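User: structure tokens for this one?
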Amino acid sequence: YLDFEDVSAAWGRPGQFNLRIGRMWIPFGEEYLLRGPVANPLISHSLSDLWGVDEGIEIYGRLGPAQYVFAVQNGGVSRLRDFNGDKSVTGRVSWQPARWLRVSGSAMRTGEIASVADNLTELWFGNAFFRSLGPTARTGTFWANLYQIDATARWAAGHVVVSLGRAKYDDSDTIDDNSRHFRFGHIEAVQTITGGLYAAARYSAIRVPDGYPIAGWGTMGAYFFRPGVLTEDLRRTSVGLGYRFGPPLVLKFEYCWEQGRLATGVR
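Assistant:
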């Protein structure tokens, strides 16, 4: 991408307006900012793990005590062509009321995605993507709208992160109502024990009444691409130890377990 930094300095407002054009992160939530293996205290991520890279245009900057980012992107996984003119729109506003506390709110619409040509959203969710529930013969497009709040409290030797989100899926199926309402979130705690040694834990969950294709760490062919297999409830718990040798090197050990239930009641 091309990054035009501090454009607003031209009219005497440094830091207020920056412009980015190209293929870049989808700026939803806070977890994607720490997704790299050194920044992430654990090896795994949360269940929702909302992130993605998409082509488009983004503005970002600071207005007083608040930071903002706003992006318009293609929405579908095809990188060379957009098969539906509707665009993905994402915004996030964050605020730091105290040195130890940061809060933010995010909102996103994936835009209408062509069920056949695009097939999947560029946004990653639940170790997979958003995909169409309606049969392709009668479902031309699908879409999702998402909202999330994030809060991070830090102290000298650790931090706690909490996120809570909601989403609504729908499609253009001409016969059935396939709309779904999602609830998701996670809580993460990290504490330094001594020197570079630290302990970390994270609990995350996704709840979808009536079910939706969610892979988690299950087999994609069995839980995401297989027709009629819909997950209603999924939970992941991770605990780990890590040692930070320095900025370029961290050693991590993690034990993680995941449990879920299909819409049919099968575990």
